[in-house]
Amino acid sequence: MKAARFHAREDLRIEEVPEPELRRGAVKIAVAWCGICGTDLHEFLEGPIFTPPPGHPHGLSHEAAPVTLGHEFSGTIEELGEGVAGLDIGDSVVVEPYFVCDECAPCREGNYNLCTNLGFIGLAGGGGGLSEKIVVDSRWVHPVGDIPLDEAALIEPLAVAHHAVSRSDLKAGDVAVVGGAGPIGLLTAAVLKGLGVTTVVTELSAARKEKATSSGVADHVIDPSADDVKARVLELTGGAGADAAFECAGVNAVLDTMLDVVKPAGVVVNVSIWGRPASVDMQKIVLKEIDLRGTIAYRGDHAAAIKLVQEGKVDLKPFITGRIALEDLVDKGFDTLINHNDTAVKIIVHP
Fold first, then answer.
1. CA distance readout (Å), 65 to 20, 47, 133, 189, 202
2. Of 92, 216, 241, 305, which residue is least crowded by CB atoms under 10 Å?
3. In angstroms, how far apart are the furthest CA atoms of the chain?
4. Quick check: bond before 351 cis, omega within 30?
């Protein structure tokens, strides 16, 4: 079968690989759609980051580069392994793409997303959604019912957003600022809106500003190149500042701004993955007693994310701005998102 294989920095190839073999406790999925994630772009440009380099296999997947990429995917169950219950052939599903050890202290405490041996399917091995088929342990497979499979490919990043919002302690009626209207920023705003939070989105890109407005996830959109973000947020909040802010750009200026816009004793959640160390103005944190919180992936968030879509509280359709074939992954996918990201939000791939 065809698969997109990451070999090394800026070396991504569409290759023929053996179809994966079914095993006990697992299911075989025919991949329908796979999203291109910002993490994939970081891996391509700066990696290996999450991908084990050659000669250093991951402790749980036992794989090293080259590996098949893709962790935001949907598909249909084709085969059931021995011992699988609660799933049926023909089910539309998404995958929580994890390798965890179940033995370290975080795993034993239920915080499996903080596993000390954590790996991601589609980055650390185990196949990936940028291929025709994949075999995944049934514990990680979530039925999506009648959610269309192209939209379902966005459930994984929606779960990221849901987990980030859960880290903020926000409630209905609060005000939040989202720094960056890329896919994760937009989906974070979507979850916030679904929970009844007033959302303020900051973004430079014209296409992404328009998407924040037209999708309905932003109550207010601020362009930092044209407006004083802190002054506008203070104006919108009667001088109080936002209850929480989300850094979704991986840009130091955005992180700095998020520290500016939250109220005293407010919360800043860092959602993005950073390609290099950030600098943080600790005096801002100290003088306002800001809580700066990290968030990684998800932990029990997929069911809640699926429910938000099924109940109509989040509409995923507006965020899909491109559909491409696997053969066009680099030229029409990665190149567009790296060099022309003002023209696209989420590009999904049909293997």
1. 17, 11, 19, 35, 37
2. 216
3. 61
4. no
How many Å apart are CA 84 and CA 221, to the nearest integer? 47
Query: CA 49 → CA 60, 97, 119, 330, distances in Å?
Result: 16, 16, 11, 19
| Spatial contact of 63 and 99, defined as CB atoms under 8 Å apart | no
Give the pLDDT band of residue 274 (cuts 50, 70, 90).
confident
| pLDDT tens, residue by residue, 120-169 | 999 999 999 999 999 999 999 999 999 999 999 999 999 999 999 999 99
Cα dihedral 75, 78, 81, 83 sign: positive
What is the number of other CB atoms lying within 10 angstroms of the CB of residue 170? 22
Q: Compute the distance between CA of residue 222 and CA of residue 274 in angstroms, rounded to an integer.
A: 23
Asked whether the CA dihedral 21, 22, 25, 29 is positive or negative, the reply is positive
pTM score of the predicted model: 0.96
43-61 residue pLDDT tens = 999 889 999 999 999 999 9
- The DSSP symbol for 49 reads S
Coil, strand, or helix at residue 34?
Answer: strand
Is residue 314 pLDDT above 90, yes or no? Answer: yes
Nearest to 349 by CA among 330, 323, 327, 321: 323
Compute, in degrees rounded to 10, the torsion defined by CA atoms 227, 229, 230, 236. 90
| Helix or strand (DSSP H, E) at 309 | helix 302-310
Separation between Cα atoms, residue 115 and residue 110, nearest integer Å: 9
Backbone phi and psi for residue 36, each to the nearest 5 degrees, phi listed first: -90, 120
Instruction: Give the pair of three-digit tokens for residue 36.
Output: 């291109």
Return the closest-CA partner of residue 195 out of 313, 319, 315.
Answer: 313
DSSP alpha helix (H) spans, 195-251? 206-214, 229-236
Structure tokens at 1: 């079968």
Sorted by sequence, the CB contacts under 8 Å of residue 33 that are 6+ apart come out as 73, 74, 75, 149, 150, 152, 153, 323, 348, 349, 350
- Please give the Cα distance from 350 to 35 (Å, whole number): 9
Q: Are the beta carbons of 334 and 12 closer than 8 angstroms?
A: yes
- My answer on whether omega of the bond before 48 falls inside 30° of 0, hence cis, is yes
- Rounded CA gap, 138 and 301, in Å? 16
What pLDDT does residue 336 have? 93
